[in-house]
Give the backbone structure.
Amino acid sequence: MAIVIRLAAAYLVLVAVAIPVHFIITPLYHPGDDPYHAAWAVMNWFMAPAVIVALAASFVGKRRIDREGEADMKRYLEANSLFYVAIAVFIIYFWNWFGALSPINSADGQFWSALGAVMPIVIGVAGLRLWQMPAKQQE
């Protein structure tokens, strides 16, 4: 089980690095005539599982802190903040992606821009926390 968790953590970190790199270089190669193009269409299939895994990992971290009961305030705020921001990213990402997949392409470019900045942080932090989880907690 520990190797599966490590692989999931590595996947999250890789996606968290790929999103801002691609987000920053997109204006260099994209002509700008259509707001949704093939490169992001492919990236979305990698980002979707990362969003789900980040939400699950943040939920597990929140539950662990809640079970401990006497957690310090810093750990409590970190776990809860990550979880609730992961929920927001999950909702906005899938709502906008399904809008982009719809025949009328109702996705909102402003949400894509916000997600390009926030999603790598949430996914990256969740991945790093998952990676640092002690081996006995992974089982």
Notes: DSSP finds five helices and no strands in the chain. The longest helix spans residues 38-68. Residues 2-138 form one domain.
